[in-house]
Every structure is written in C-alpha cells, then in structure tokens.
Amino acid sequence: MVQISVSASLRRVRAVWKAEADDVPPLEADDRWRGDGPVVLVGGWCTTDPTLAPLRSWLERLGYSVTTHTDGAGMGCAARSTERLRDVVRAAGDGGRGVRLLGYSRGGQFARVVAQDPELPIRSLVTLGTPFDLLGVSRPLMVQVAAVAVAGTLGVPRLTRLSCLYGACCAGFRGLLRGPVPVPFTTIYSRQDRLVRWQACVDPTAGTVEVPGSHLGLLTDQTALRAVARSLHRGDVPVAAGN
Fold this sequence. Notes:
The structure is a single chain. This protein has helices spanning about 1-20, 50-60, 80-90, 105-115, 140-155, 160-165, 170-175, 200, 220-235; strands at about 40, 65-70, 100-105, 120-130, 185-190, 205-210. With about 240 residues, the chain is α/β, with parallel strands linked by helices. It has one domain: Rossmann fold (3-Layer(aba) Sandwich), CATH 3.40.50.1820. Strands 2-1-3-4-5-6 form a six-stranded parallel β-sheet, with helices on both faces. α8 (about 200) links the parallel β5 and β6 (about 205-210). The termini are far apart.
C-alpha cells in the first residue's frame, strides 16, 4: 500500500511538471556568454536526466563540460544526497579546475550546502527556482513531499523521511540552507512559479535575477537560459533578465 501511495504521488507531481513544460526554444549561443571548465548540474525534486537534458545541451553548446547529478530523482535523504554530491564535485574538479555548481529546485539546496565546504574546488554557485526555506513550496507540492516522507519513514528505500524534514537526521543540512556562500552566488527565480514561492528563492547574500515563466520553464525558456549563461560567465554580477 505504501509503494502504491508513493507511485501515485510521483505521478501527480510529474503531471504538474508536464503541464508546465514548454518546448525547447531555438537559441543561439552568444560568444559573450561562452565559457569552459566543469559544471555540475544538480537536479531537484522528481527530476531525472531527461528533464535536465535541454539545460545540459545549452551548457555544452556554451563550451562547458557538464556532469548531471540526479541521485534518487532528488527525493532522498538530504544529508546523504549532499554527501554524494560532494563526491561528484571532487571527481569533476580533478586537475585543479574550479567547478561551477548549478542547482535546480531542491538540487539548489544540495548545491548551496555543498558550496559552503571550503575543501571542495567550487568556483561559483547558481540556483534555479530553489527555495531556501523548507516550507517555501506550494501547498500541493508540500503534500506530495510529506507523502513521500511518510513512505520513507515506513521503510521504502532511498526516500526522504520525516526525520529529514524535522528531526535530527538532516539538522545540519537545514542549518546550512541560509548559510553564507563563500563563492560568487546568483539565484534565478520567477514570480510566475506555481510550485515554489518566489520569496523563498531570494537571498540577501546573492545576486538575484528574475525571469518570467513556470518552474519547469526555468530549464527551457529563452530568458532563463540566457540568465543562466550570464550568471555562470559573470559569477556574482547580477544582470537584468531582459538583457
């Protein structure tokens, strides 16, 4: 019964994702936005490699070497997820080159926590539609998160648990969600996002870029893709979304 409930919850979440999806736009890579070096692209809640494919393709066209990280489709224990992301960053940074972290939705939470580790070769951090408060999502999505957490608590493997949300399990992770980021940090968000409250995406320590569009549109819309390119290229210098 638990597995059936989780499967139904995931189908509802993916239905919202699909309803918000936009076609991948034809977009040329402006020479001013080009870069190089490793980027680790971190997926969020219910995010898989195919979901990130348009953004990964765009980054590769810009000249970056991209590693995607979608461990457990972003639905696992936050503490374990950040540890696995640390391993990915270490591997991507072999050779002494700094790694740019780009986190989408919950993946931006993982990325922000990892970016605070002084022993990792992290060059900059960009987040897309990432809430830095645990309750910074819409009520329907919070219901889905709670359902998955209950299932994880009851023993379904590789799912987040209630202790991750409120107990000692991920207390350290939760304490770092608003922690200071020692590298250039930009957060990109949309006021039209129906899944994540835009206010939860804003941080006074970060450069902020507001773009139009849906939550999933942050991965595909032209304005969002341009904002990502500029943010990666310019580090902590925020730019107007329309430029």
